[in-house]
Specification:
The protein has about 550 residues and is of the alpha+beta class. The protein has 18 helices and 24 strands. The protein is about 30% helix and about 25% strand.
Length: about 550
């Protein structure tokens, strides 16, 4: 439903009467909502909004949001919570549990097939499933966690699911993490809500979730017996046969596939083949096993990587004489898309050590401010503000609202309009304006400033506008391109260290120099046009919002 972007038509605060109607609708919808959930998710006061949107399919719906996250969706009077709401109140709707490989397929657009559902050998849980009606709202969780990863609608009753032996398509997915609805919130990952369960994992790794898998659940007893048998097997040490080249070949291939599928980011390319093997392939080797390329049929890592290139999984180029690097990963390769990570390699990979150690970098917190100057002083001095004081836009709004309320300036017929008087009229130079026009004019007359707070330091107030990190490409001698990065220091980034990291990451010539004509300001020069890759590093590894980065193309 939200796999593609939706169009927002209107967005406004929910009236008190509509909030009460929404609470009543939630109670009658069948959701198990406590008084605490109602008061938290649909507050009587506060920033609670509704957006009327049009989905890519043309369907109209309403999205209720408790800033900054959407919490409920009303589509043709079918009301359901989002994952953000379920993370706060996990038991609001019945749930189905499944395994991570199934989640990957759901995110690609598949609905939940019943063979992918994990049944709990618990009478209360089975009773809950059996009592479900067709078209009921339900959540999808991963085994071991109470945090929902998707929300759906049952396509048959729970009684029919059990009667069919848990075969067929069971749940239509309405909303899932990483879809457009999730992206409209703060884009946070599922919280840690551990759930201790005694489970039997069905062979979901080898089954195709898109098809109806012929693996019916005969009974909870059989599941429990199989679980106990599997636990007994896993608890006993099993010798791993790695002596044959075939086993070592498979281990090398698995480590390679895990590395390109889960570990290497596009921003890290090009990547020297030697570094790729040392920093990505080897750390993916499962605990208790040892990868040795010399004991494979390839004997050398480059022989193996070139074969992977022939299979259209990666692109390799000779960046320097005798130096090969991976320049691209074929993310759209069918072999990569269909590859499932072996169970032994899930969650047990050794930490990956990459050449760029920026994981500990914490970006500063930036707050836009506005300084009181002579143009607006007649108004703000009423509230004991003097020239040079800095205010947030929210503070200025509060003062304006208080002045309008105290002097009863709001128009009785049109609540959006204000009849200005006194110092507010003097400062804004008008007799009648809307609230938004007041705030816009007031903001335009104040001097811009910003407050920046670095981790562990006191806030600093700076005049003017925060300089953006600029990525620009220019042509130098012999028509060669060079990428220039400026204003890194404003965000607490060590220019010399950043230059060294980019040189190591991209295998390109870099330098950190003073900007001509601007003493004490530094820039980083990188050989080639690298704006996209450097921008991805700044937003991904340095956690800087994209609004602080601008890209310029110079001829």
């Amino acid at each position: 439903m939200f796999s593609r972007a939706f169009k927002v038509k209107t967005n406004y605060a929910v009236k008190n009467s509509d909030r009460k109607k929404l609470r009543d609708k939630l109670i009658s919808s069948g959701c198990s909502v406590s008084d605490e959930a109602l008061s938290t998710l649909v507050p009587s006061k506060g920033d609670f909004t509704v957006a009327k949107v049009e989905a890519a399919s043309g369907k109209n719906m309403q999205i209720y949001s408790l800033a900054p996250n959407p919490v409920f969706v009303d589509a043709d009077d079918f009301l359901f919570p989002t994952v953000y709401a379920l993370w706060r109140f996990p038991d609001m709707v019945p749930c189905f549990r499944t395994w991570p490989p199934v989640l990957e397929k759901l995110q690609k657009g598949a609905d939940l097939m019943l063979p992918g559902v994990v049944l709990i050998p618990d009478e209360a849980y089975l009773t809950q499933i059996g009592s479900l009606r067709k078209n009921s709202v339900c959540s999808i969780r991963l085994v071991g966690s109470k945090a929902a990863v998707a929300v759906g609608m049952t396509l048959m009753s729970g009684e029919e699911m059990l009667r069919r032996g848990m075969k067929g398509k069971g749940v239509k997915i309405l909303h899932i993490i990483q879809d457009q609805l999730w992206s409209s919130g703060e884009k946070s990952p599922p919280p840690s809500l551990p759930e201790e369960l005694s489970l039997q994992q069905r062979d979901a790794d080898s089954d195709d979730e898109e098809d109806e898998v012929e693996a019916p659940v005969e009974s909870v007893t059989e599941n429990l017996e199989a679980m106990n048998l599997e636990e007994a097997r896993s608890s006993s040490p099993v010798p791993v046969e790695e002596s044959t080249a075939e086993n070592m070949d498979q281990l090398l291939y698995d480590c390679f596939m895990v590395a390109i599928k889960k570990k290497v980011k596009d921003a890290e390319l090009p990547l020297l083949c030697s570094n790729f093997y040392k920093n990505f392939i080897l750390p993916c080797c499962p605990e208790g096993r040892q990868l040795d390329v010399k004991r494979t049929k390839y004997k050398k890592i480059m022989t193996f990587l070139k074969e992977m290139s022939y299979k259209l999984l990666i692109d390799i180029e000779e960046t320097k004489p005798g130096v090969d690097a991976i320049v691209a990963i074929k993310r759209d390769s069918p072999a990569l898309a269909e590859y499932f990570i072996p169970v032994a390699m899930r969650g047990t990979q050794k930490p990956v050590e990459t050449p760029v150690a920026t994981n500990e970098f914490q970006p500063p917190t930036v707050q836009d401010m506005f300084m009181v100057n002579a143009a607006v002083l007649p108004f703000f001095q009423i509230y004991r503000q003097k020239k040079g004081d800095a205010l947030t836009l929210q503070d200025a709004r509060k003062m304006v609202n208080e002045f309008v309320r105290t002097h009863q300036l709001q128009d009785e017929r049109d609540k959006r309009m204000v009849n200005l008087s006194g110092p507010l009229r003097e400062v804004l130079g008008a007799e009648r304006l809307s609230f938004e026009e007041i705030f816009e004019r007031l903001q335009s007359r104040m001097a811009p400033a910003y407050q920046v707070t670095f981790p562990g330091e006191s806030p600093r107030l700076m005049k003017g506008k925060l300089p953006l990190i600029t990525l620009s490409v220019a042509r130098r001698a012999s028509n060669k391109k060079v990428t220039m990065i400026t204003h890194l220091e404003a965000y607490g980034i060590d220019v010399q260290e950043f230059s060294r990291q980019i040189q190591s990451r991209m295998a390109a010539s870099t330098s950190a120099t003073e900007i001509p004509g601007r003493p004490n300001e530094m820039q980083v020069l990188v050989q080639g046009s690298r704006t996209k890759e450097i921008g991805a590093i700044l937003t991904g590894e340095y956690h800087l919002p994209s609004k602080f980065i601008q890209v310029e193309e110079k001829q």
